[in-house]
User: Which sequence fits this backbone?
């Protein structure tokens, strides 16, 4: 590769870095392929089938999905914005701790929070039992809480683990808001309390929109929570249509409907953010807003208030999982297949992380070294996976790779008389492909952000000193963006470990990951078996939370770093590239 | 106008009275105590180098920061004092920020309307329309702040501050974000608008020329205290000390000896009044433009060290016998200097004297 670039550079005819453009184009194509396949397959479906879908499955699934989105959207906005204002507008003992503790629910995937609360709030479980004892009832027949297995339950549980997306974005916005805007409002007759409604909130609207759309994408991606809690969303319908009815055209059609909803969410986000440029334009340094000190009792009240989401979204599930896992291990030791499950998870995730990093770097570096329409388009295409639910990508890949595997198998059979089996779908390769397509946005965005901090003049100096584009990447950019790469690697790895829907659809028969193991046990109703896997996932998922709390520290934010958002990096960073 | 500006007993009641206002800012650094009285319809310039406390004083007046001690009265009403602190939104003081702080999510019209929540709809509308008209922003009413040029943003910020008819408008370095060419025009327009609306204004600036040309009354600050206040002419022509003198102009500093009400220097004897003992060292401060070329015999003379032509004026450095440093002169005359020597005289009326540091 380097040789080719050097040769073309010496000619002086073709600009150096063409290799990167080709790599970026290939990456973009690979990401786009499953979506194209989905489109083609969906059109294959007979009209009769579409009618059946239209009249039976789709209306219910669509209605439930929209209700779920509306409910989660409103609740995460309230929780996220409220907590963000709490820690940026007021000074009270424990505020700093609360600031990072509020991120912790991010470590609990939606399917784990649903699974834990199903057991915690079971009619004969700990919580309800205690309430009955306190109230003096003797049996669940006399008194029970409303069933958590409901739309309301699903909305509440999802919101309490997804609100950090809104919290992160909105807090960053509040922190970087110039104090002069607040002060100007006050000199124009707005009281300290009213400042939130009249200035801070309207200004933070773009950030709230970003956070909300991320939370909604997680909601659309979720398969476990909805299934455990009995909500038939589009995602659940795709899964059952393919797994139980083996109806690929039908699954593709629902997947396309789901994509329409995704596009609607993104469009809504863009609409709500349409004035973000203005807001960014106003941030011209200067002093930042100062927190208001409150009395000791008021401070205690604020702290308690802020801890509620942490307790529901993290402490409760984590404590439950820890005790369950402890009991299970003390009773029967580690489950027999646990270690192979862990190694399988790590192997698949590590392979996907490596591939994601390389391709993400290619996409970002092509956009830098060969700026223009082609590389920008390639970059955008490479990052569309972040918005697509895992089931959608998985169904698309089943179509593409299934066809590929069958063709190869048939050709090998007719030419060499041997059976290759299913090369992609039978190995973990399909899964690695799916992970890469889905999380490429994180590494490409992270790399682009890292690169954007390196002045263009360094590229130029390196090139005038005789270095090629590839050599410049190796000797200048990579050393300078190590941190950004490491952070992306961590985020991608953990997301792979947590990933459930695509893994369920694409894993080879003999392979289990922590997430699928948990899903299988929970589906069978053997909760305690799954607690160890769930705890392992939560422990691993805490790592990026630590990273986020560091990157999102007040000092870093105010020095002008980009607001750290795990899943939205691309949508924020695309501006650098475009 | 200048006569009524010396805060003496006969002048009308001040709009704003600042009474021993003080605030600690950090270890070894504090603002005040500051005393100041500001008359209605005056444009006051607070001037000083960065970090002198002028912006802090402005923020204390606005109520954005709280004083540690001292009192503040606006139209006779106590805003800050013993146990009293009126929140900024209750003060009726307008503020124009250095970065303008226009709300990015509101149009220009909505920005100006922002402070008029308690007004009736029609009153607010007509008020905003009038201000848009005055600031020549009517065509921009529906635009967002980022779509405006720097000068237009500045006018919008001023219009917004003026909208609720504040008793005083405070402006923190309002022209510093503008290009040099634009600055002059915006400053002119701003002052015209303040005059037309009979507004009392306090403008913070670090630019001595801006302070002298803009203010009816200039307040020079240093290290959190007021060095001198008065009309621009007073500060320029009769500075209270060396710091004030050198802040507003450049001088030739000529060493001399003080005897019997006169300062004896190598360039002559200048009458002056100094509070120093007989025979002690002192400095004569001579403006470059007070050194005039002359053809008469018997005048002082020196050899030309350098000439720099600057258009309207020419600056010449002379080596004069008895002086260690070269003497700088500025003249509008076109000189034909032969044999490198020049005779000059000094206008004694503009010479200042200060005790040697």
Assistant:
């Amino acid at each position: 590769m380097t040789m080719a670039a050097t040769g073309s550079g010496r000619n002086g005819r073709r600009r150096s870095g063409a290799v990167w453009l080709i790599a970026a184009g290939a990456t973009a194509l690979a990401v786009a392929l499953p979506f194209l396949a989905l489109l083609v397959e969906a059109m294959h479906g007979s009209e009769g089938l579409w009618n059946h879908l239209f009249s039976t499955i789709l209306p219910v699934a669509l209605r439930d999905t929209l209700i779920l989105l509306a409910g989660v959207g409103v609740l995460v906005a309230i929780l996220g914005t409220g907590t963000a204002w709490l820690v940026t507008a007021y000074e009270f003992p424990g505020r700093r701790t609360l600031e990072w503790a509020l991120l912790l629910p991010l470590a609990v995937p939606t399917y784990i929070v649903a699974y834990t609360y199903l057991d915690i709030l079971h009619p004969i479980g700990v919580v309800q039992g205690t309430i009955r004892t306190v109230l003096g009832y003797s049996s669940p027949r006399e008194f029970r809480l409303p069933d958590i297995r409901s739309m309301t339950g699903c909305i509440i549980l999802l919101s309490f683990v997804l609100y950090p997306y809104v919290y992160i974005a909105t807090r960053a916005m509040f922190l970087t808001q110039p104090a002069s805007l607040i002060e100007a409002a006050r000199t124009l007759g707005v009281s300290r309390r009213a400042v939130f409604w009249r200035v801070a909130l309207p200004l933070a609207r773009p950030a709230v929109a970003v956070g909300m759309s991320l939370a909604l994408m997680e909601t659309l991606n979720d398969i476990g929570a909805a299934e455990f809690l009995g909500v038939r969303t589009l995602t659940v319908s795709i899964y059952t249509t393919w797994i139980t009815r083996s109806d690929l055209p039908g699954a593709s059609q629902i997947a396309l409907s789901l994509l329409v909803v995704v596009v609607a969410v993104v469009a809504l986000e863009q609409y709500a953010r349409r004035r973000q440029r203005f807001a960014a334009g106003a941030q011209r340094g200067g002093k930042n807003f100062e927190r208001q000190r409150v009395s000791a009792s008021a401070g205690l009240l604020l702290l308690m208030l802020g801890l509620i989401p942490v307790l529901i979204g993290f402490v409760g599930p984590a404590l439950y999982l820890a005790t369950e896992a402890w009991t299970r291990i003390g009773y029967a030791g580690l489950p027999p297949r646990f270690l192979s499950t862990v190694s399988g998870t790590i192997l698949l995730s590590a392979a996907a992380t490596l591939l994601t990093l390389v391709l993400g770097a290619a996409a970002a570096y092509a956009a830098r070294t060969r700026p223009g329409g082609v590389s920008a388009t390639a970059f955008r295409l490479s990052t569309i996976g972040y918005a697509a639910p895992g089931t959608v990508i998985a169904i698309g890949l089943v179509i593409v790779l299934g066809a590929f595997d069958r063709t190869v198998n048939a050709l090998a059979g007719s030419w060499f008389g041997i059976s290759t089996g299913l090369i992609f779908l039978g190995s973990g390769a399909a899964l690695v492909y799916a992970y890469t397509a889905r999380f490429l946005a994180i590494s490409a965005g992270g790399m682009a952000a890292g690169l954007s901090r390196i002045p263009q003049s360094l590229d130029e100096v390196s090139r005038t000193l005789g270095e090629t584009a590839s050599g410049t990447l190796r000797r200048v950019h990579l050393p300078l963006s190590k941190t950004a790469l490491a952070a992306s690697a961590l985020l991608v790895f953990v997301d792979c470990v947590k990933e459930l829907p695509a893994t369920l659809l694409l894993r080879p028969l003999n392979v289990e990951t922590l997430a699928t193991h948990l899903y299988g046990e929970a589906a069978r109703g053997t909760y305690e078996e799954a607690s160890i896997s769930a705890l392992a996932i939560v422990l691993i998922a805490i790592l990026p939370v630590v990273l986020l709390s560091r990157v999102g520290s007040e000092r870093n934010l105010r020095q002008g770093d980009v607001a750290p958002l795990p899943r939205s990096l691309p949508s924020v960073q695309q501006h650098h590239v475009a | 106008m200048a006569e009524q500006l010396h805060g003496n007993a006969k002048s009308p009641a001040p709009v704003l009275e600042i009474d021993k206002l003080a605030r600690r800012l950090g270890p070894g650094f504090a603002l005040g105590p500051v005393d100041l009285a500001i008359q209605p319809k005056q444009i006051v310039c607070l001037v000083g180098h960065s970090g002198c406390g002028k912006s802090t004083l402005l923020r204390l007046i606005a109520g954005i920061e709280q004083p540690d001690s001292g009192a503040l009265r606006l139209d006779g009403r106590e805003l800050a004092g013993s146990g009293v602190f009126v929140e900024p939104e209750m003060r009726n003081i307008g503020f124009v920020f250095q970065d303008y702080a226009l709300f990015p999510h509101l149009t220009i019209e909505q920005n100006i309307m922002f402070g008029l929540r308690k007004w009736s709809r029609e009153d607010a509308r007509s008020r905003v329309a009038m201000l848009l008209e005055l600031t020549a922003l009517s065509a921009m009413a529906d635009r967002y702040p980022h779509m405006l040029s720097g000068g237009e943003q500045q006018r919008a910020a001023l219009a917004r501050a003026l909208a609720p008819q504040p008793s005083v408008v405070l402006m923190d370095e309002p022209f510093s974000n503008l290009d040099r060419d634009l600055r002059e025009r915006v400053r002119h327009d701003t002052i015209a608008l303040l005059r037309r609306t009979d507004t009392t204004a306090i403008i913070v600036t670090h630019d001595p020329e801006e302070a002298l040309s803009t203010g009816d009354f200039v307040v020079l600050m240093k290290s959190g205290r007021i060095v001198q206040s008065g009309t621009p002419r007073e500060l320029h022509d009769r500075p209270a000390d060396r710091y004030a003198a050198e802040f507003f102009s450049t001088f030739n500093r000529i060493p001399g000896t003080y005897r019997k009400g006169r300062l004896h220097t190598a360039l002559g004897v200048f009458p002056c009044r100094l509070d120093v003992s007989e025979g002690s060292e002192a400095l004569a401060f001579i403006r470059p433009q007070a050194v005039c070329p002359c053809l008469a015999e018997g005048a002082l003379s020196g050899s030309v060290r350098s000439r720099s032509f600057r258009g309207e004026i020419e600056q010449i450095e002379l080596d004069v016998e008895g002086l260690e440093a070269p003497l700088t002169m500025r003249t509008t005359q076109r000189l034909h200097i032969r044999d490198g020597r020049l005779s000059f005289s000094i206008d004694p009326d503009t010479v200042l004297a200060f005790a040697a540091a």
